[in-house]
């Protein structure tokens, strides 16, 4: 994991409150995300993870409080500034969000066609490069989303999120619906992207293996508030019941034991999990 300093704040969430009618989703949320870290949001159903993500990417506004992303106050942005800011981040949506009538190459190139004046041939070349970055073979570019496996869909969606060379990447359930082998490949890909390009990555996930493998810090949301923030190791030692439930069940214990075994293997110089092929 990379170490960062507190003055390298990329996202600052201050006293954010959100309601849907009488239902309180957020009640004074305070969080910060640091440059080049992998930061995860977890919590039970209805804890406000997805709502907070939507607020960070300008798809929804909180009722009160402030959110600053890459130095910009989202509540104060005009339309032109909002467009410029969106170009500095990429989003991989949970279900891919690819257009079914376009090939994979056309989907990946779409942000470039919308936001640049590059020629079509160059856009296709960049799209092919982005697909290769995510581990997909060149021939995948000619396929349509309906022809892809779940793992390939996730990678194609990630390639599109990377199209404009973002400095900030949002991942919504990047391993949801994947078999363990494909999910393991995503673990490695997320780490590699951060390490190679210095990306700041914010993700929502229920995948405890992914959290143990890649997250620098994790925020647990519950009852409208942040119940705790820290590394997975730090969170696993906290007594808060809202946090303990993520570590006390069989899935939590299995993921923790696997991480401890792999940490022991790394410290002794033994090989870890072998690379996974894209699926």
Description:
The protein is of the alpha/beta class and 279 residues long. It is built from ten helices and ten strands. The strands form two sheets. Strands 6-7-8-3-9-10 form a six-stranded mixed sheet. The chain has a four-stranded antiparallel sheet with strand order 2-1-4-5, covered by helices on one side. Helix 4 (120-133) crosses helix 5 (150-161), helix 7 (208-214) packs parallel to helix 10 and helix 9 (241-248) packs across helix 10. The longest helix is centred in the last third of the chain and has 18 residues, at 180-197. It is globular, with a radius of gyration of 19 Å.
Structure summarized in a few sentences:
This protein is an alpha/beta fold. 39% of the residues lie in helices and 23% in strands.
Shape: globular
What portion of residues is helical? 25-40%
Number of strands: 10
Structural class: alpha/beta
Termini separation (Å)?
Answer: 26 Å
- Numbering strands along the chain, what is their spatial order in the largest sheet? 6-7-8-3-9-10
What summary fits the major beta sheet? 6 strands, mixed
């Amino acid at each position: 994991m990379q170490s960062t300093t507190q003055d390298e704040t990329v996202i600052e969430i201050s006293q954010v409150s959100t309601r849907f009618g009488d239902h309180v989703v957020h009640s004074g949320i305070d969080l910060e995300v640091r440059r080049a870290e992998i930061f995860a949001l977890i919590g039970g159903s209805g804890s406000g993870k997805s709502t907070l993500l939507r607020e960070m990417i300008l798809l929804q506004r909180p009722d009160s409080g402030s959110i600053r992303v890459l130095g910009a106050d989202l509540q104060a942005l005009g339309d032109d500034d909002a467009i410029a800011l969106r170009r500095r981040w990429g989003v991989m949506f949970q279900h891919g969000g690819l257009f079914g009538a376009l090939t994979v190459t056309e989907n990946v190139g779409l942000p470039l066609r919308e936001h640049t004046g590059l020629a079509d041939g160059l856009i296709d070349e960049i799209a092919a490069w982005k697909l290769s970055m995510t581990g997909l073979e060149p021939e995948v570019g000619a396929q349509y989303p309906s022809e892809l496996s779940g793992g390939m869909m996730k990678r194609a969606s990630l390639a599109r999120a990377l199209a404009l060379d973002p400095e900030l990447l949002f991942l919504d359930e990047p391993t949801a619906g994947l078999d363990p082998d494909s999910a393991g490949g995503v673990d490695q890909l997320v780490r590699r992207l951060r390490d190679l390009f210095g990306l700041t990555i914010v993700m929502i996930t229920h995948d405890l293996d992914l959290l143990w493998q890649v997250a620098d810090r994790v925020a647990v949301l519950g009852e409208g508030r942040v119940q705790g923030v820290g590394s997975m190791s730090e969170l696993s030692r906290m007594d808060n019941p809202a946090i303990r439930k993520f570590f006390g069940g069989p899935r939590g214990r299995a993921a923790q034991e696997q991480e401890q075994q792999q940490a022991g293997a790394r410290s002794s110089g033994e090989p870890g999990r072998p690379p996974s092929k894209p699926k």
